[in-house]
Batch of 3 targets.
Target 1
Amino acid sequence: MTPVPGEILEVDGLSAWYGEARVLTDVNLRVAPGEVVTLVGRNGAGKTTLLRSVMGLHRQVEGSVSWAGQVLGRSSADKRAKAGIGWVPDDRGIYATLSVQENLLLPPITSKADAWSLERVYEQFPVLQERRDFPGTKLSGGEQQMLAIARVLRTGSRLLLLDEPSEGLAPVIVQQIGDIIRQIKDQGVSVLLVEQNVKFAATVADRHYLLAQGRVVESRDNDSFQSRTSELLEYLGM
Ligand SMILES: Nc1ncnc2c1ncn2[C@@H]1O[C@H](COP(=O)(O)OP(=O)(O)OP(=O)(O)O)[C@@H](O)[C@H]1O
Ligand SMILES: [Mg+2]
C-alpha cells in the first residue's frame, strides 16, 4: 500500500512543562507519509514527553501539533486515536489479566479501511497466534512488545508512536521488531520511533532527530547519521 498524501505529522514550536519545570523547548519536527523517523536522546531528554504531547496525553504544552492537515489543539487522546494516531507506551500497556486475543480485540477500530483483521495480525505475528489464549503476564518482553504494536495496527492507526520498543530485548528479538517496523512502513503507515539503541535506529529509520535537554539539536537523514554516529552520540553524552 502506498503512503497517503497529506498524512503528515507536524510539530511546531512545541514546549512542555511539568509544573514550573520546562522539559521541551520549541521543538519542530515532521514525519512525512510512510516515513520512519526516530527521536534519539539520552535519559530524561524529553522523548516520552514529546510522544505523550503528540498523543494529547501531556497537556501542559504550548505550540502546535497537526496531523493530516488538522491542528489538534486541545483535542483529547481519544480523538487523536480516532484520527489515526496510535501510541505504544514504553511499558507496553498490556492488560495482564486478559488473554492475548482479548488484548487485541479490546481497543475500538478507528478506521475500518486500515484496521488489520485478527487473521492478518496472526499471519504477521505467528507467535501471538500460538499464545492467543495466554494471559498478558505470561508473555516474554518481546512478545509483549509485538502485542502492543499489533494492538494499534488492529485499530487502523496510520501513524505509530513507538516509545523505545527495543528496550530490554535480546538482539534477535530486536531484529524481529525491526522487521515489523519495516513491514509497517511498507503498508504506508508512518512511524515516530523513540530510541536509545542507535544501531537499531539506523537499521529502520529514514531520518533522525537528536534531542538534548528538551531541544532538537540535530536533524539528519539516515546516511549522514550512520556516517557520524559515534560523534553524534558523544555530543549527546550517550
Ligand atoms: N510526571 C512528571 N513530573 C515531573 N517531571 C517529570 C515527569 N515525567 C518526566 N519528568 C521529567 O521531564 C524530563 C523529561 O522526561 P521524559 O520522560 O520525557 O524523558 P525521556 O527522554 O523519555 O527519558 P527516558 O529515556 O528515561 O525514558 C525529565 O527531566 C523527567 O525527570
Ligand atoms: Mg522515555
Target 2
Amino acid sequence: MNRGIVVIPTYNEIENITVILEKVFALNLGLDILVVDDNSPDKTYEKVQEIMDEKRYGNQLNLLVREAKEGLGKAYIAGFKWCLGYPYEFIIEMDADLSHDPKYLSTFIENIKNNDLVIGSRYVEGGGVVNWSWFRKFISFGGSTYARTILGISIKDVTGGFKCFRREVLETIDLESIISAGYAFQIEMNYRTIINGFRVKEVPIVFEDRVAGKSKMSKKIFIEALLNVVTLRLHKKEFMKDKKAVGDTQGQQ
Ligand SMILES: Nc1nc2c(ncn2[C@@H]2O[C@H](COP(=O)(O)OP(=O)(O)O)[C@@H](O)[C@H]2O)c(=O)[nH]1
Ligand SMILES: [Mg+2]
C-alpha cells in the first residue's frame, strides 16, 4: 500500500483506460489507483479486472464497479469512501480520458505536503486548455467566474476535476450530504473544503481535450451546476457545522 491513491471514474473509457493506467504507473511515484466504473456498457471494468488478474501492476491497481451510471459525483463519493477504509494520506481525482496529463501528479504530491487541497488549474498563470471548442471554453470559464462570484471564493478554476485532497478533508466533509451529482460536484467539494478552513492551492495545468471516446457533459449537468451554486450558497451555515470551520476563509493562491 502506498501513501497516495488516484481515483479514476470511468464510463465507457475502454479506449483510454489501458493507456492511462500505463502512464500513471510508468511514473513510479508510489501511487495506487482505484478505478470506479458505473457498469460501462463497453465493459471498461472487464479490461481493468483483466489487468488486475495479470498482476501487471502488483496490488497497486484496484477496481470498484457500481451498478449503474449515477454521475461523476456519486462515483467519486463511493471511491472516496473506499479509499478512507485504508490509511492513504492523500487522494487524487483524475479523469480517464487523458485530458489530465499524469506528468502533473508529482506537482500534486509536492504541494499536498503544505496544503489540504491542491487544484490543477486551467485559469492561473501557466495553465490553459488545448483543443476545446470555443463553446466548451466559454461554458467552463464562464461557469468558474459565475460560481466564484456567487460563492465568494477566490479560486480561479472552480470546476476542474484534476485535484488532490488530504484525507482529513474527506473525513471532515459529510460525504453523505453532498447535494451535487454531476460536475457541480467539483464546485461543491471546493466550496465545502474552503468554508471548513482548509488550505487550498491552485497549480497550473494544461488540459487537453479527449481524443478517444465521448464526453459525458450534458445540458442537464450544466443546468444542475448553475442551480446548485445558488443552493450551495444558501446552505453555507450548514456546511460550516464542522469543528474546523473558521467562517469566511477563502482559498489562497
Ligand atoms: N463512474 C462514472 N464516471 C463518469 C461518469 N460521468 C463521467 N465519468 C468519467 O469522468 C471523467 C470526466 O468525464 P468527461 O465525460 O470526460 O467530462 P469532460 O471532460 O468534462 O467532457 C471521465 O473519466 C469519465 O469517464 C459517471 O456517471 N460515472
Ligand atoms: Mg473529459
Target 3
Amino acid sequence: MKATSAGQLRALTADTVPDTEEIRPGIWAVPLRIPHGRIRYILTYLILDTRDDVHIIDAGWDSVLNLATLSDALNDIGRAVTDISSVTVTHMHPDHIGMASRLRDYSGAEIRIGRNEQQAMILMAEGVEPTLTPAHLEMWGVPGHRQEELTGPISITNEFYSLQADVLLGDAEALNIPGRHLTVVDTPGHTTGHICLADSSSGILFSGDHVLPTTHSGLGLGGLRSKNPVSDYLASLERLAAFDAYEVCPGHGFRFVGLAQRRQDLAQHHLRRLNETSVALAKNPTATVWEVAEQLSWGSGWHQLKGYHLQSAIAQTAMHLDHIRSSDGSYRRGNPAPLHAIFDPTAAAAR
Ligand SMILES: [Zn+2]
C-alpha cells in the first residue's frame, strides 16, 4: 500500500487537517472537521459533471464551520452550494450523512443512499436504540465496577436515521452523474448497508469507511438487520477484488494505491481476532464475552480501553463470538443470544 497524497499523509501523521486537493480533473477531496473523538476529519468528495453541476460523496459532519469550508471549496471552482445536484452517502454515520439534509434544503440536490442502509435507518428511527442494557452487561460477564461506564449509546446519535433519501441505490447500479461512470458496490459490514462507489472513468474507488488506510473500521456499527457483520465484512472485502488496480479514496486518512494488500491486511486482522477468540474458548468453553475480550490483542492494549472504546471492544468481541458460533455451532454457552438478535426488533419479536 502506498499513499498517493503527500499532503493527506502528512496531515494524518501530524494529527492535523489537510488542504482541499484536486485528485483528478473535476474531482476534489475536501477535508471536513469532526469535532469529537480521535479522527480529525472526513474526506468529502466533489465531482463536477459535464453540465458543470456538482455531485457530492459523503456530506461531512453537520457544522457551521464545515458548511463554510465546503462553500469555500465550491467558490474556488466557480460553483456554489446551490449548484449541488446530488449527495451520495456511503453509510449512516453522522460524519458521512451529516450535512446531507441541509445541502438538499439549499440546493434541491437529491440524496442517494444504499437501499439496505435506508431500511436499517428506518428500523433504527423507529426507536430501537442500540444501547447496552444492564442485562447485556450481566450476560456478557462485565464486572460490576465496569458496568457504569458502558451503559451509554453505542452510536453517537439517532437524529440522522430519520433522513429519507430521494434515490435508493442497489448493488451494481450506475450513479446518475452525466459524463462519468460511477457504480455502486454493496459492502456491508461496517454498517448493514454500507456502499462503496467505483469510478471506472477515473480509476477511483470511493471506499467510505469500508477500507481505510491505517485503521480497522469497527463492524456492526449501525443497522439491525445483519446477523453476522464479521462474515459480511470479510465477503465485502473480497467483493472489491475487481478494483485492486484503482486508487482508493477513503472516508478518512489518505488516498492510496495497493488495495489488494490492504484488503488482505484487513481480512488478516479479523481472522487473527477470530483465531484468538477460538483459542480463548478452547481454554475455557464457558468464558463470557468479557473474559474472551480480555485475552484478545487490542491496538492500545486491553487495560487502556475505557468508556466508548471499551464498549466497542466488547461489542466487537461479541460479534466475533457470534461468527464462530454461527460457523461451527460449537459455542453455545455463556452468550445465549447474539448481539444482533437482541438489537433486532424482528428477532426479538420472534423469540
Ligand atoms: Zn466515518
